[in-house]
Structures
1.
Amino acid sequence: MLADSPTSPMPTLLATFTGTDRPGLTARIFGALGERPVDVLDIEQVTARGKLVLAAVLDVTGDDGSVRAQLSDVAATLGLTVEFNSGHGDPAEPVERAHVTVLGAPLRPPAVAAITQRVAAAGANIDRIMRLASYPVTSIEFEVSGADPQELKAELAAAALDAGVDVAVQPSGLIRRAKRLVVMDVDSTLIQGEVVEMLAARAGVLEEVAKVTEAAMRGELDFGESLRARVGLLAGLPESALEDVRADVQLTAGARTLVRTLKRLGYRCGIVSGGFSRITDALAADLGLDFAAANTLEIVDGRLTGRLVGPILDRAGKAEALRHFAAEAGVPLSQTIAVGDGANDLDMIAAAGLGVAFNAKPVVRDAADTAVNVPYLDAVLYLLGISRADVEAADAADGYVTPSPPLPR
């Protein structure tokens, strides 16, 4: 950032202004140069708590003494401090750039130190830092140059784990901005809890269902076998129980904000679930989702038979659903995002352009491109460079008051 190329003969001047910010400072600074033979090559400006840092690289023809004097005079008039550095060349953009997004609840200084130390150890430079959110989590984005994003991701993963924060590393460029389809798991991702367990509680077989789930987690049953076994225990449950469960389903904090914001930006949104279509279809209608896929329970004479209709949507089926949604939306897989928490989501997460492990099992966190371990689903927005201020401004423009999310316990 704002660094000159030593091989170019072009004389340049870096002017850095600091002081108390107020309206009109930038206009006054550049207006002071008037008709001088000066070209503006780069400008960066940051304000924090009313304090300004403005840096400009200028192509100065001839002696830069008069330009320095002119800018020193205007700085003094405005109550600013200015420093000058001479150099040569148009500031060159580094070839390898990455965005590093840090999430903390809270974000402590040792965590920032650990992350930035690893960035420096990787031979990379932090060019720019900006805040994306201050509550209910703190999200800071670092623009980093000079390191391969994949290598940097590996470097920062251990530091993030030790520091108790989430870190996402993504290559800069158009591909980060171009993602246009988000597909989410449902149970324990879009919603809190597991639908099959909610149904099991109404059928009086929660303990038995939990045992089958534990066997599957130990690898004794695959997903299809475990799902059939659990659904079999629901035989005889009245159909009305599905509506009761649907009424009791609680969305994960931030789910509506995430979907609402993505839809404003033109994203297509979908859900895939190893659960049941009677629940997911209702969720899709409620949230205005574009796609939904799940398993179908067989119902005869108003009661669950304990069987499923059609093929089971398992781990491979979720990835296939992602591909199908992407094809229907006309979006390449490189521009998709998959969010999930369990092993059943691994293929989907691997197939997507960006795989996000949301409060996930360790095996999923290790496989995903990034992990979010705060209890707010809209934190996914920060991975896309969308700030909470932008979300709230858009809500306000639409007359929607963004509710304050619950603070983490």
2.
Amino acid sequence: MSATPAVDDLLRALAPQVVGIVSRRFGDFDSAEDAVQEALLAATRHWPVDGVPDEPRAWLVTAASRRLVDVWRSDAARRDREARVIAWEVPAYDPVDHDDSLTVLLLCCHPSLTPASAIALTLRAVGGLTTGEIARAFLVPEATMAQRISRAKATIRASREPFRMPSAPDRDARLRSVLHVLYLLFNEGYASTHGHTVQRIDLSREAIRLTRLLVGGVPDHAEAQGLLALMLLLEARSPARSDASGALVPLPEQDRSRWDRPLVAEGLDLLGRAMAHGAVGEYQLQAAIAAVHDRAPTAADTEWEEILTLYGLLEDVTGNPVVTLNRAVAVAMVRGPQAAIEVVDEVEDRLGTTHRWLAVRGQLLEMAGDTAAAAELLDRAAATATNEAEQRHLAERAARLRP
């Protein structure tokens, strides 16, 4: 969007609500989402000039509805509409005051979609972003992103799922998909896999906004609270994660006075409320690890024994080799680098070609005093990494280890 920040914020908050109203009114999520995009673009042109209308949501619903009617005036569109109305079981009434944001979010994270497609569709239908904005965020051509979104909507249409809140058992399964999608979206913003910057704040902040929306819809869901806590505890470090030149600053070297302490406090409070439910999941465990780091006044004050215990629990829950790799770092801090190298080598068959495995093993070899071997691995890690800031950081570390 290109309107004022206040208008952008309002449109992003209203986008999923309007998609929900128009989808229920016309029985067609696919066409409704396209029409709402047109309405949002019209609002970005008119509202900064004419002023925000007294009933902004009603303005958007009316604009999207008119757009949809115009599209459906052709005979081919009418035949398609009739088939979709039957499939979507349009309700006889239209509770305009009902907020469908959570329903739209659950639909966009349909289990049959790939994570990449679900993220793209979520950013458009729930985040209110244009296809061009999403494409730029993920560094792909706009045509590629348009095809991804189109395929995602076609997959949902083919499922013939009615636009309504899933039943309780289905909702639990769908919530797991939503959490995974939002987690991946945040990670791409917090630690970008491509590009020349350490992080993309716009993506991580949008993930936080959407997760707040989710927590508002399911306020007693412990893992949703845990995921939001994790995001806040990590995002709090953002101001210190790169220096004035944009170079990556590792966690032990960060100036913790620059961390966003209100975000840390909110994250810790959310984590406490999530843990009180008694059912501890992977996002709560990750948040608990982040909390140990964030509570430490300095890197030297970090409670590594506690982190090692938490990583052990997380490894049991997920079976994820990346967790094993992270646990190895904690092992190094508690038991020494040689014990940690043995842990890293346990997952070489699954991660040995990745820059993360190469970087961690290189770091451990450096701690063990084998600087030549460490430099070689760090060089290989730099050559394998896809983020330019990370490439430079790893290459500089390798260069410092050579005589």
3.
Amino acid sequence: MEAGSGSASTRDRLRGGAAITLALGVMNIAIYAFTILAAHDLGPDPFGALTALLNVTLVAAVLSLALQATAARRIAREPDDAALVEDIILKVGLRTALGLGAFFLALSPGVNAVLKLHSLPTAIMLAVAVVPLTVMGAQAGVLQGERRWVPLAALYVAAGVPRLIIGVALLAWRPDESVAFLAVTISVFAPVLVGWWALRDRPHGQPPTGDHTARALWSETVYNSQALLAFLALSSLDIVIARNTLEPKEAGLYAAGLILVKAVAFLPQFVVVLAFPDIGADEAPRAALLVSLLIISVIGLVATLGVKLLPDLALVFVGGDQYDAVSGRLWAFALLGTVISLVQLLVYSVLARPTRLSVAVLWAGLVALVAVGSSSSSVTGLIERVLVIDAVLLVVLLAVSLRRLGQQAPVTPAVGTD
């Protein structure tokens, strides 16, 4: 009986892993295809405006990711309280979404001016889009914490495919940045509908008590946002450094290399999604972390070796022959993508067992990246400096995470220490 149960559990895990891997692949390919379509149809200036809007949306999505991490951690750690946590996290998610939407609505004239959109309605669309985006995070966290991989996979697919379909239709009608972002705004409601359907029959918990109150969950979400924002900045700021320290052509070559960084960092994304509930639970969290790190390392090192052996093929995926000057260094960008993916997993291990020291380390790494990276004068110099900073951060976070995961008692952000 136990053997059969274990076999079924293994099958379910493999099926869930396959579903999440496929869903994340479909989502990212669809979003990438929409971006390429928009770049082709809009031209440089309008596409620049759309990119600026999407970047602001990406920053706003930190709260969505924080809500997801909060829900997944609490449900995985305390499955007996799952119904209670689900009730309150969905309410907190909705309130957070409405508050964030109101915040961006108030800022819409400023957003319009700073991003040079010349269209207040387009800036207002940003305020609309962040509402379902934030709600989606709470829904995804519930599904992830419960390890309901197939519905979560459906949610991820819905986060990408409708954007491409609606984008194709609207850009064929009128190719401008406002219409392109309208496609994004409409499509972001699709995963919320999937999440609502998947959670429609969930049992309702008792009134929140103890640690499972709206205040406690909001406090943890804010804490998670700090770590995720630091990671987002850490993995994105080098292009800003490149544009301010390198010659324009060199900065363009570095930007091409970053396409490969994002691609390699994406490959093991499914490992992070699947591992987080296990790292947050009490059963062998260290083993879950170490196995996940090993899987990511193998995937990343195979990709890096492939780029090293076949640089001309890799060059096709970063822009073609016009970026040939960087082909000999593309393996370093693939290695950076591997390191970033490992750091991301460790960031989520920090969220699983919160500590003040870990978040401080992330922000210190960001400061070091700016200080050290700004002294670069070439693509090689910058990629070497970024690799060293991220590798050191990886080692420090690994040491902190292994220590914290060895502690049995759950730790809340309010009292986390090292």
4.
Amino acid sequence: MRRIHYSWFILVITFFSIIVAGIVRSSSGVLIVPLEEAFGWDRSLISIAFAMNLLLYGISGPFMAALLEEIGLKKMMVLAMTTLLIGVFLTLFMKEPWQLMIIWGVIIGLGSGLFLTILSPYVANHWFEKRRGLAVGILTASTATGQLILLPLLAMIIDAYSWKWAIGFILILSFIMVVIILLFMKNSPKDVGLLPYGLDKESPVKELVQRKNPILIAFRTLFEAVKVKEFWLLAGSFFICGLSTSGLIGTHFISYCIGFGFTAVTAASMLSFMGIFDLIGTTLSGWLSDRFDNRWLLFWYYSLRGASLVFLPFALNDGSITLLIIFSVFYGLDWIATVPPTVNISRQIFGIEKSVVVYGWIFAAHQLGSAVAAGGAGIIYNLFTSYTWAFVLAGMFCLLASLFVMVIKKQEIKVDVSQTYKA
């Protein structure tokens, strides 16, 4: 045990924290139809509430990154998980659409912000000197791991009992996670008398911590970032990333499958099946991002994702479970694989200290795309009584994202890196 660096324990705690936060947010995928049936609410209205959730937790990312430097990692994780706990608890008592908007759009949206935006790169940057790409890959994969383990279980609970029983189960998990964070989480390696994993001696540069208003830090960093072309390219590609993942697949995939005669449990199982391969794909992506040109990794990730989304309507229309499994494997390998290369490029361009806040803004674009897809797909469904156009358009946008990332020139990144460190 003495050989295991405490950074790996922090990685495990963070991993399971993100799993719980991820299952709270992604449970929206199995709640749309039950809420529609229980309250008689319009599907587009429910979709808008979940779209607000996606947008708010994305926009909160850069502010969460700035607050981390002021409040500390442990307190922020406790505060965020407690917020999720409160939101899940209040869900049991909601009766009106405006309550859904406040609870899921605002409270759970804010509670998810820390865990599902900048926590992964923050922990990787501050607790790891070596294996950063691998650490980001593992932590990013944890959002899908929650779906892998729990979404089919939630669907079965809803099918056997009711959606309130599923909410109660999530409530218990959230409470357990609050206790674990309180007992074992640490703010930094210094709290346990260590240096980050792989660092032999302390660097005096890392001691320069900005002690200013977190809101000013977030906006000042944004004003600096928007002057850099690569920021817009990364933000644009990540907008499409969000549009084609959590906003579309995470919110509407189960409902889409139900429309073709598949059961909710089968659809949730396919979503969890994606989670198995996302865990593999994203972890592998982290390993690859430490070794290969991150631009080319992103090019292939977006291209293959686009192809898989265009393929999905044909698989569902055929009614073949085999084709649906093929889609789940193919799409799952690529679900969140884009995160480690995007984090790496951001760190290379903006430096280790600013990159977490910059990535927070890039992820805000991701969640803006998620919100557009979550709300837009609901509107498309109301217009055409089908999600097909939403999925085909998302696939076409992915091909556009693959072109965005190739505009980033490798030599330009090197220039920006030198300028960043010189400053």
